[in-house]
Batch of 2 targets.
Target 1
Amino acid sequence: MEDFSDIKLSRREFVMAGAASVSAAALPAGAASATARAPAVAPAALKPVASDVSFIVNGQPRSLTLDTRTTLLDALREHLHLSGTKKGCDHGQCGACTVIVDGRRLNSCLTLAVMHEGARITTVEGLGTPNNMHPMQVAFVKHDGYQCGYCTPGQICSAVAVLDEVRAGIPSHVTPDLNTRPHLSPGEIRERMSGNICRCGAYSNILDAITEVAGSQT
Ligand code: FES
Ligand code: FES
């Protein structure tokens, strides 16, 4: 057995040595030596990269110079000051950030702004105004389709796009017959709106609002 009695480490050296051995033990065989050989990342490579992007937002041409890591959600809220679109989870789970991009609904927290050069983007502000509301906004008010309202812009953008999807004949996971145009049953609406979470639980009223608008458009 080896004798380590002559080795003296300061407390700091002891902690650093311990951390290094734990890291090495956690790596697959061979990875530790590969890591040791890996060249250091040049600081310049870590610098943010800016890029120009132009798109049409609510009918207005907008041009921005953005850090390429900026999400579409942050571009809308922080750079264009369109704060109607909400940040709930910021990773694709709640639907509060839903906007309509080139006719399709999108979680704006999951996509980078610079990926949408030339796109037509509609946020809740572009659907209607307090004096001239979109029929879906009117129906949400009429049916009390919200409580705190935080999820509501995303719900409304999603609902408007859902009706367009059905009109275009796009099936959902619960469409019973893929050869006929989907019928907007309560089950279809619930399925298609399932990506929009409402912590206040206004689901039945949201369903009523969408059903009314769908009925008036058929
Ligand atoms: Fe984008 Fe929740 S904020 S899905
Ligand atoms: Fe509050 Fe939906 S109305 S989260």
Note: Residues 146-152, 198-200, 202 surround FE2/S2 (inorganic) cluster (ligand 2) (CB under 6 Å).
Target 2
Amino acid sequence: MPRTANRLNVFTESVIRGMTRLANRHGAINLSQGFPDFDPPEELLAALEKAARGPCHQYAVTWGAPNFRQALARKIQKFSGVDIDPDQHLVVTCGSTEAMMVAMMTACNPGDRVVVFSPFYENYAADAILAGAEPIYVPLHPPGFGFDPDELRRAFAQRPKAIIVCNPGNPTGKVFTREELTFILELAREHDAFVITDEPYEHIVYEPLQHVYAASLPGAADHVITCNSLSKTYSITGWRLGYVQAAPHVIAQARKVHDFLTIGAAAPIQEAAVAGLELPDSYYAGLRDLYTRKRDVFLGCLRRTGLRFTEPQGAYYVMVDISPLGFQSDTAAAEWMIREVGVAGVPGSSFFREPEHRYIRFHYAKREETLLQAGERLLKIARAGG
Ligand code: GLN
């Protein structure tokens, strides 16, 4: 019997998506896989209906429909200040998930090293391995999840081809400062490496902090490959729409990877999503306020359990320290929580390189009533632990 590829033996299926399946099987409130239980803006829904009756049912241009790329370029330029030529700086992809895979395959030769901060979003190690590269890890230190500059310097001494920066961070909620991003970029420039960023939570940053786009820093043009997604900004995770943004010579190669992986993102979806990209600035302020309220509601619920947890600066994840509950492993704790408490989270160990089993990650991209209901259920934990 022929054997499948060896590289597939070194990572598992996504634990996040596995937890969603388990939550559905047990009817638990699903705070594991990060996606909203509320609708996208009305403008997007109307545009989707209209697109269904329009002419966009065949392949779009492989690197993205022109009107979508034009609207995207305007929106990126407005928020980041970076000059974008929609014909040269962008490839439209199926979510940031494809964008990251495209970036990695565009940047790396087999055997190259890629620096990944730990904890990390679980796709990154798999992306590196599928691209034939080897992830090397640099810890982010709680409670603030900053990095130690010397540890990062030592990782760069191993001559990596790229570093991955998720900003705002999943699962940490870390928002990288301008100084931190500048330090990372300087190291990358010194060592001829790429900075591959993943920024789907760019608009979910809590005041007074602000999102800094790595691509906007001086000297970024030839080094930064930005990956991003419309999923979280417009509450359309199922639309699978994202993009790679980089220098024209990088994009010329990225287009080839993308073309042979998927040909393109869905044409009617690109057409409809233009309505999102054209929403006024007040939409983004509203989104930040909406998530600030959700964060406050959910953290308020967590406080009542008496357990300790991380304080997100951005994105919509929180890691709860479940060590007082006395479970053998975080996986056992997460499964117990789904079955007995009726709330699903993700075992924190799936985000860490280090043997760290003390956290469960929850997200709060849910309606307030869902969060409050989850909060009521989570009080059982306090009783179990107490
Ligand atoms: N980014 C989300 C999370 O971390 C969704 C992951 C996914 O399934 N693509 O939960």
Note: The domain at 42-280 is CATH 3.40.640.10 (Aspartate Aminotransferase; domain 2).
